[in-house]
Amino acid sequence: MAWNQPSGQNNNPWGRRPGQPGADLEERLKSLQRRLSSFMSPGGGREGSAIFVYVLLAVAVAWWLASGAYTVGQAQRAIIQRFGAYVETRPPGLGWHIPWPIETVTKVNVASVDSNKFKSRVLTSDGNLVDLHFAVQYQYTDPKKTLFSVREPGQTLSEVSESAIREVVGRSTLADVLVGARPEITRRTMELIQRTLDYYSAGVTITSVNLQDVQVPDAVVPSQRDANKAKADKERLILEAEAYANSIIPVAQGTAARVLQDAEAYKAQVTAVAEGQAARFTQLEGAYAQAPEVTRRRLYMDTIESVLARAHKVVIDTHAGNNVMLLPIDKLLEKMNAREGEGAPADNAAATPKEPDQVTVEARARGER
Fold first, then answer.
1. Strand boundaries in 93-142, DSSP class E
2. Which of 84, 227, 328, 360 is deepest in the core (most CB within 10 A)?
3. Does domain 114-216 have CATH number 3.20.20.450?
């Protein structure tokens, strides 16, 4: 007879036969299910339901208290916060804190050295554009400052590093950046970054700054060559101008010194002549006071002599009775030419055309004749 024919018997070949271990286990599971259903049902036993609730609460509290345990590694420090406010910094090892949401634990690694790489295009002090590749190594040495002083320490470090390298390279020349003073540039950059981070109280310590690569952009190489050529031409023209100035200035200074010396000499000459004339006038005044008539006649005769000496006329006095006389015309002409040559300046003599020579006879000479 087939196993599924209606006969009132369970002829299922996959079913459990009475007396087997699997049947006992199935009965136990069903019994436990019935008990749980009776505890959870509203009409069930109140005492059993309360016990179950207490058990659940105890398990939840135990689990909540157990979640407060933590382990801090040797290279880490634990920051305890109570309702978001800083409480303390705990050293490495096992610890426990009041679980969330009352207290939280933030672990900060203070021993590892992290590195950030940056790329920046900077203009040097001599007008050259360079691409810089540099790396900054740092540590979080003060976890409290790192978590509470700055919002994003990594972003802050990136911005401070780029600003520092721009400032330092911007004050250096291209030759210094390429080959001349790269260690000095990295040292100054590291000091500037650390000083800025300390001002921000970031709790970050810079261990090193490495300038990995410096390149001139290909797009600006021709313009940079033109700029260098223009700079060289500028320096050359400045040197030429300085050389010309050095050759002109001494000549001008010598001319100025000579003019000053001539002026001083003329001043001394005029002063001496004036002082001499004043002394002569003083002496003449004294002589005039002693013999007015003689002095007056003498002055008159000297004045007439000086006036007639420059006159181009020959005066012959015939009242003395000498109607015929022999005049030494040649001697008189020579004497007159000599006096004109001594009295007139050389430039006036060269510029003024000569007139026919005439003879002037002094009054005293006529009286003697």
1. 93-96, 103-109, 114-123, 129-140
2. 360
3. no
